[in-house]
Amino acid sequence: MTPPPDSSTYFRKGFGLKAEVQEDLAAYEGMLVDRMKASDYALTAGDMTIRLAREFGFCYGVERAVEYAYQTRRKFPDRRIVLVGEIIHNPYVNARLRDMDIEILDRPEGRAFDFSSIRPEDVVILPAFGVTIEDFQQLRELGCTLVDTTCGSVLNVWKRVESYARDGFTALIHGKYYHEETRATASQVRKHGDGHYLIVRDMGEARVVGDFIEGKVDAAVILERFAPHAVSPGFDPRRDLVKLGVANQTTMLARESLAIGEEIGAAIARARGEEARAEQFRTFDTICSATQERQDAVLELLQEPLDAMVVIGGFNSSNTISLAALCAERVPTFHVESADAIDPQARTIHFRRAGTKHVEAQERDWLPASGTVRVGLTAGASTPNNKIGEAIVRILATRGITLE
Questions:
Q1: Does residue 347 share a domain with residue 371?
Q2: 384 near 24, Cβ under 8 Å?
Q3: Other C-beta atoms within 10 Å of 351: how many?
Q4: Three-class HEC string of the chain
């Protein structure tokens, strides 16, 4: 169980040092972005117009997590501070934390965190994604001070998944099985002993589950497709795919999460009838409001004529990847990690292709050299305004335009 918020070694509400760290946090602000917001989210210079989505960049949960990390260093200036993985998925923000002598503990792919170096006198920050129940319990047993920055939207999903397990439902989670948030969410089923989960990445995998429910494939197909990485220990499809509750990683594409829920519910109805669907199936939209708002804002922006779309955010940022996928359906889209990916002199851009996990590319003359050009721009919830402003400057410079 989570210790009470006033525990002497567990903190979830900061240290009352908000005012003291505001000057440090001001580094993430961006005057150019503020200027565009005040001008109807647009900037026209020469024959180029850049249109900014009306919701973008840092969300409340990210701001809170970063602020708490800064407060932690201010509160414990002489203590060793360790962060369990990245605070958020933005390389610039994490680099600044390292500059503050906050160690970031890496997790080898497919393996658990190694806490053997943690001492009782250390301060450990839990990231916005949260950590698994097992990791949390292990850290508590070590006796170190914990600063928990887990996002409130993530906590809401945890409550939903825990309620499924408590009522005997398997949690079917739309997410990426390797993502920190999904791993933490899936672990919540273990609060009730024999709770179970299955993680589906997309509609294709959800349809495989639906086929099993309807008797079109056997249990071996499910286990071959999902075990061991995307199912709970001891998972038995014949037992654990009867009563199902759908949840999702908060940063996935909202429309796909809703469609997956509908697909699974319809499969149960076709196989066992509407009464079974009512009794053996639950679904709730657990996409966080900030993710939804950014996706809605991009869809609104895409109604305008655009020659290209630039999406800024970490290549491992799930919500940024979702934004890029939406944009790529309508317009040439360039997902860049930072302004450094844009080289005005060479007229190149280094980007990740939307819809791919590891395919990166570099394109020359990605903007036409002359004529009127309209570029849309958005950023994932982990991207600060100063980095967005830097990208805007470089986009303009690619066309030889300099701002005063």
A1: yes
A2: no
A3: 23
A4: CCCCCCCCCEECCCCCCHHHHHHHHHHHCCHHHHHHHHCCCEEEECCEEEEECCCCCCCHHHHHHHHHHHHHHHHCCCCCEEEECCCCCCHHHHHHHHHCCEEEECCCCCCCCCCCCCCCCCEEEECCCCCCHHHHHHHHHHCCEEEECCCHHHHHHHHHHHHHHHCCCEEEEECCCCCHHHHHHHHHHHHHCCCCEEEECCHHHHHHHHHHHCCCCCHHHHHHHHCCCCECCCCCHHHHCCCEEEEECCCCCHHHHHHHHHHHHHHHHHHHCHHHHHHHEEECCCCCHHHHHHHHHHHHHCCCCCCEEEEECCCCCHHHHHHHHHHHCCCCEEEECCHHHEECCCCEEEEECCCCCCCEEEEECCCCCCCCEEEEEEECCCCCHHHHHHHHHHHHHHCCCCCC
Active site residue 55: no
- Tell me the mean pLDDT in the region 264-292: 94
**Average pLDDT over the chain, rounded to an integer:** 94
CB-based contact 198:260 (threshold 8 Å): no
Domain boundary residue, one of 131, 149, 167? 149
Q: Is the pLDDT of residue 100 over 60?
A: yes
Active-site residue among 55, 67, 181, 337?
Answer: 181
Per-residue pLDDT averaged across 264-286, rounded? 95
What pLDDT, in 10s, does the model give residues 331-357? 999 999 999 999 999 999 999 998 776
Cα(46)–Cα(11) distance, integer angstroms = 51
Please report, for the domain that includes residue 283, its CATH number: 3.40.1010.20
pTM here is 0.91
Q: Estimate to the nearest angstrom the gap between the alpha carbon of 350 and the chain centroid.
A: 22
Taking residues 57-76, report their average pLDDT.
96
User: What are the tokens at 213?
Assistant: 């429910």
117 near 144, Cβ under 8 Å?
Answer: no
Tell me the pLDDT tens digit for each residue of 71-99: 999 999 999 999 999 999 899 999 999 99
Does residue 5 carry a pLDDT above 50?
no
Would you say residue 8 lies in a domain? no
Distances (CA, A) of 244 to 172, 179, 196, 210, 261: 6, 22, 10, 11, 10
Q: What is the pLDDT of residue 110?
A: 67
- Give me the domain span that covers residue 39: 28-58+290-398
Report the percent of the chain where pLDDT is more than 90: 89
